[in-house]
Amino acid sequence: DTAVSQTPKYLVTQMGNDKSIKCEQNLGHDTMYWYKQDSKKFLKIMFSYNNKELIINETVPNRFSPKSPDKAHLNLHINSLELGDSAVYFCASSQEPATNEKLFFGSGTQLSVL
Amino acid sequence: GQSLEQPSEVTAVEGAIVQINCTYQTSGFYGLSWYQQHDGGAPTFLSYNALDGLEETGRFSSFLSRSDSYGYLLLQELQMKDSASYFCAVRHSGNTPLVFGKGTRLSVIA
Question: Is a pLDDT exceeding 60 seen at residue B1?
Answer without folding.
Answer: yes
